[in-house]
Amino acid sequence: PPERGARAVAADHIYYVGVGSNMLKSKLVNRGLNGSKIEVIDFRGCSIRGHRLAFNLRGFPPLEPGMGGLEPASPTDECHGALCTMTRTDYEKVWLSEGGGTSNPGYEEIEVEATPYGSASPVRALALRARPHARLSTDACPSERYMGILIS
Questions:
Q1: Which of 19, 112, 113 shows the shortest CA–CA distance to 57?
Q2: What is the rounded CA–CA span in Å between residue 117 and residue 68?
């Protein structure tokens, strides 16, 4: 819908900050439902001040105890992720792959200011945060599989 993330849209492109497993481009482009690919126009590192990477979206213990998302933090904290430029259509594929098409998704979209590496000018971007009903009271430890993706 047009009202979602209206300020994070530049013409027909959307800036999306991938954290957690979506920091790995090969993982992100293969997230499309029914085998469809997600086309990424630009993919670069960025920082997001005032936020942290949290593993507080209820997962599937013991295999995946918690999934990653952004959480607000102190103004001096900084999270690093992947700033992805994509079309609205491709962003919708990301959103749907994260459960966004369900009646009660685990994530909510938030708008953040992301500063691309090598730039002093932040851009408005969409990111995902665990919704209250799916948010763990404390962060879970990421699984060995998840840590492998983050390290890649």
A1: 19
A2: 21
Note if the bond before 62 is cis, omega within 30 degrees.
yes
Pairing of strands 13-18, 78-87: antiparallel
Amino acid in position 138: T
DSSP string of 99-142, one letter each residue: TTTSSS-SEEEEEEEEEETT-S--EEEEEEEE-GGGB-SSPPPP
pLDDT tens string for the chain (152 positions)? 445 555 555 568 999 999 988 999 999 999 888 888 999 999 999 999 999 999 999 988 788 888 999 999 999 999 999 999 999 999 999 999 999 989 999 999 999 999 999 999 999 999 999 999 999 999 999 888 888 888 88
The CA-to-CA distance between both ends of the chain, in Å, stands at 33
Stretch (H or E) spanning 78: strand 78-87
